[in-house]
Write a structure and sequence with these properties.
The structure holds two protein chains of two kinds. By secondary structure, chain A is mainly beta. Helices cover about 0% and strands about 45% of the residues of chain A. In chain A, the strands form two sheets. A five-stranded mixed beta sheet of chain A has the order 1-9-8-3-4, with no helix packed on it. In chain A, strands 2-7-6-5 form a four-stranded antiparallel beta sheet, with no helix packed on it. Chain A is globular. By secondary structure, chain B is mostly beta strands. In chain B, about 0% of the residues lie in helices and about 50% in strands. Chain B is globular, with a radius of gyration of 13 Å. The N and C termini of chain B lie far apart (about 35 Å). Classes of the chains: A mainly beta, B mainly beta. Chains A and B meet through strand 4 of A and strand 4, strand 5, strand 6 and strand 10 of B.
Amino acid sequence: DAKTTQPNSMESNEEEPVHLPCNHSTISGTDYIHWYRQLPSQGPEYVIHGLTSNVNNRMASLAIAEDRKSSTLILHRATLRDAAVYYCILRDEKNYGQNFVFGPGTRLSVLP
Amino acid sequence: NAGVTQTPKFQVLKTGQSMTLQCAQDMNHNSMYWYRQDPGMGLRLIYYSASEGTTDKGEVPNGYNVSRLNKREFSLRLESAAPSQTSVYFCASSEGPARVQPQHFGDGTRLSIL
C-alpha cells in the first residue's frame, strides 16, 4: 500500500503562509492525493485533493511535484482557526476500502 | 443543512454490554463509512458501504457489525463491548468513491468501556 510521511508538528505565525510537506515516494499512477484537517474535538474536514496538476480552492492550494513523489499543502495566510492536525492521504482505485488510513498527520500550531 | 449527524455524542458502557451507534446524512450521498480514532492517533476504517445495500470490511472490523438501513442511515453495532473498543467513532459520507470525492464527517461519538 502507498504510504505518506509527514512531519509530526509545525509552527507558523498568524497571517503568514504555511507550507505543509508530504512525501509519498511509492505513489502509483492512479493514486489521488487528499488532504484533510482535524480541529480539536471535531471530525476531519476535507481540504483539497489532486492527481497530477496543482489545485486551488478557497481553503488552500496543493502543489504536486512533477514526479508525484511529494506534495505540499499551502495555506496562504494562516489564521488561528487553521491550528489543527493535517492529514495527507493517498487513495487509489484498487484498495477502495483498505486504503483509508489516516496516519498521525502534522500538528500545526499558529502563533498570534 | 445538518450534514452528517451522529448519536449519541457520549456513551459509557460496561464490558459485555451492547449498543448501536447511529449515523444519518442529509446530502443524498451514496457511500458511508465508520472510523475509529484512538488517543493521539489517526483514523482507521472499520466498515464502509459503497452504496445502499452493500457493506464491506475495512482495516479493523473485528467486534463490530454494520447495517445500511437506507440511503441516509448507516449504523455501527458493538455486540459485546470490550475495553479495547474505547475510542472516538466517526461516521462519514461521500457522494461517490472517496478516491475522487470528498468525505464529510460527523462530530463523533466518544465511547468509554469500563
